[in-house]
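Quarterly update, task 2.4: pyridoxal-5'-phosphate-bound model.
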Amino acid sequence: MHVPEHNWHDWRWQFANRLRTEADFAKLMELTESEKEALKSPSFAVAVTPYFASLIQKDNPNCPIRRQAIPLIEESTPDVHGLSDPLAEDAMSPVNNLVHRYPDRVLLIVTETCHMYCRHCTRRRRVGFKEKPISKTDLANALAYIRQNPQIRDVLVSGGDPFTLGDQSLEQIIKAIREIPHVEIIRIGTRAPITNPFRVTARLVRMLRKYHPLWVNVQFNHPLEITPEAANACAMLADAGIPLGNQTVLLRGINDSAAIQKELAHRLVQIRVRPYYLYQCDLAAGIGHFRTPVSLGIEVMEQMLGHTSGFAIPTFVVDAPGGGGKIPILPQYLLCQTPEKIVMRNYEGKIFTYPKPNPK
Ligand SMILES: *Cc1c(COP(=O)(O)O)cnc(C)c1O
Ligand code: SF4
């Protein structure tokens, strides 16, 4: 496929030309039987930008890019732990499109569209079916809710992918949130720098920087996603003074080793993205084949804490089923405590004692 350079670098072209069907993918690579069957009647939306598809190793069915992008039949095989809404987001939604789980911050779903539908998506129950943004009424109600709740100091703009909206629609939303006096920070969650990096344009960045303090969280899952294009998108955001965080999902067969996680973290800090969360894959139905043992996340933390720069280390969290929120899990460093002292071990396994200060 020959694509003129100006098209390839145009995020709208990438979006409009997403690969969606078996025939689309078959033009690029030989599909496995499982992929072919899954693509015939996918249980969750399929769409992959030509850019992201170009990163696929065509002769490797286990390619980490491919496995995030093209479905397997496992997506529709029964999953004993599978839940439709694993984080009870719907139950914690006081008005449409808003999830209020923690007292001081809310999650606002501004669109159900993404540049790519990640096969491991936790919000697959409501993403990708209708590719349309939040309605005017729902947005007005969500903003009214935030206005009426002065304890909300942090608004997380998510989706879907908010960076599928045009600059103007996105600005309308951000501006309206910024006008609420008690909202201290705005965060945007997006995978665009990874799945459609051309979305980060000089114009977008000029718009965003008017609404500081604004933070952006992205989702890199594998070092192969850190391409010159993705690095450039992150550099443009960082140069606009936007702190960047990364949320990785642990995925079986894709990034399930401490070595890959460590390499990813090192590559991320080089492009000024700080590892934020490392997620245990949750219980959304249809993603059971991606789940790793919880012990793997603990092992990753064990091999990072103390072994590398503190700011390169994410927090390993399990998002509690039923809406308990993100619960951090760490290896055990505190070995025992008595009224007089604590006994701990360091990253090398050496034992140390710290005398407790005398109680007053
Ligand atoms: C993850 C999440 C947040 C943000 O949590 P942080 O730990 O502050 O990043 C807020 N609301 C909901 C519903 C969430 O799932
Ligand atoms: S970008 Fe986010 S919301 Fe969209 S499919 Fe991927 S994980 Fe789901």
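Highlight for this quarter: Residues 136-148 form the longest helix (13 residues).
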